[in-house]
């Protein structure tokens, strides 16, 4: 088993402070033009899974816009990785808890890129508790605003800029399928996000816009040391049947699969669950 050393850092976390550094740059991934000429918006695209997805998209030929909270160094590095592949990259910082910012962010991306072929809704927040009575109304409101409400706002703004063969990919969580005793409101919000994806798949099927969900198990990203205490980080991921957490590079291909019409043209309303062997009905 390969757990992580005890560590913690302030929220929302920075890749450079993690030990070991996550594998999130898709260095050994070779694209084959699956997304050639596409324009993608990846929320939470600055680090972790979002970084790996952004770089993977670029390697497949897409221009990528990245929305992020405040992690300037991470966003800058991801932009460099995307541009290294010869693709355009737009970065937009700000809090997607705020409706006005969220809607303006989408409009800015659409204005810059002309359209949004692929929308990846990956951003999210979590706050562990030991007792449900610790969850304040403010925490509950922030969790659902960021993890659920902003998904609706983003899609509402993006729709008029999406072609009829567009793809929306929502990041769910294994916790949205089976709950988590310390991530109570987060798990509920992810269940809502995953159900939202299935509902949107039905709504948009007449336009040919596919909506699918990737629901990972434990993944080594900055959110982990930024939201768990050091003792819980030590051993993170060992509960998975494979005995370890995933690297972001291992999760990103699921997003590429759903983004590509060549690979997943007959998939909509579906879940992929890269969870290291933990089996749940998707």
Model description:
This protein has 282 residues and is an alpha/beta fold. It has 10 helices and 7 strands. It has helices spanning 48-59, 72-84, 99-113, 137-158, 174-178, 184-204, 223-227, 230-233, 248-259, 261-264, and strands at 39-43, 63-68, 89-93, 118-121, 167-171, 210-214, 271-272. The chain has a 7-stranded parallel sheet with strand order 3-2-1-4-5-6-7, sandwiched between helices. Helix 1 (48-59) runs parallel beside helix 2, helix 1 packs across helix 9 and helix 3 (99-113) runs parallel beside helix 4. The longest helix has 22 residues, at 137-158. It is globular, with a radius of gyration of 17 Å.
Task: Give a short synopsis of this structure.
The chain has 282 residues and is α/β, with parallel strands linked by helices. Helices cover 40% and strands 11% of the residues.
Features:
282 residues, alpha/beta, 40% helix
Tell how many strands the DSSP assignment holds.
7
Assign a percent range to the helix content: 40-55%
Low-pLDDT windows of residues? none
Strand order of the largest sheet: 3-2-1-4-5-6-7
Radius of gyration: 17 Å
User: In percent, how much strand structure appears in the residues?
Assistant: 5-15%
**Mean pLDDT across residues:** 96
Shape: globular
Distance between the termini: 27 Å
How would you sum up the major sheet?
7 strands, parallel
SS element count, helices: 10
Q: In terms of structural class, how would the helical and strand content be classed?
A: alpha/beta
How do the helices and strands follow one another from N- to C-terminus?
A: EHEHEHEHEHHEHHHHE
């Amino acid at each position: 088993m390969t757990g992580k050393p005890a560590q913690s850092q302030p929220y929302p976390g920075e890749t450079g402070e993690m030990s070991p550094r996550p594998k999130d740059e898709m260095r050994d991934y070779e694209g084959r033009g699956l997304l050639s000429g596409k324009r993608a918006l990846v929320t939470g695209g600055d680090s972790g899974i979002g970084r790996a997805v952004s770089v993977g998209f670029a390697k497949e030929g897409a221009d990528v816009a990245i929305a992020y909270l405040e992690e300037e160094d991470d966003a800058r590095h991801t932009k460099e990785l995307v541009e290294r592949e010869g693709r355009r990259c737009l970065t937009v910082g700000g809090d997607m808890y705020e409706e006005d910012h969220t809607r303006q962010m989408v409009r800015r991306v659409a204005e810059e890129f002309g359209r949004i072929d692929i929308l990846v809704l990956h951003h999210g927040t979590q706050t562990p508790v030991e007792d449900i009575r610790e969850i304040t109304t403010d925490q509950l409101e922030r969790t659902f605003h960021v993890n659920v409400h902003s998904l609706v706002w983003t899609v509402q703004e993006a729709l008029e800029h999406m072609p009829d063969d567009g793809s929306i990919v929502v990041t769910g969580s294994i916790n949205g399928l089976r709950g988590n005793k310390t991530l109570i409101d987060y798990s509920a919000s992810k269940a809502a996000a995953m159900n939202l994806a299935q509902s949107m798949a039905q709504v948009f099927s007449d336009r040919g816009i596919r909506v699918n969900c990737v629901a990972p198990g434990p993944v080594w990203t900055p959110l982990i040391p930024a939201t768990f205490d050091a003792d819980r980080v030590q051993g993170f991921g060992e509960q998975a049947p494979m005995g370890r957490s995933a690297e972001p590079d291992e999760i990103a291909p699921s997003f590429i699969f759903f983004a590509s019409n060549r690979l997943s043209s007959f998939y909509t309303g579906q879940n992929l669950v890269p969870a290291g062997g933990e089996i749940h009905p998707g």
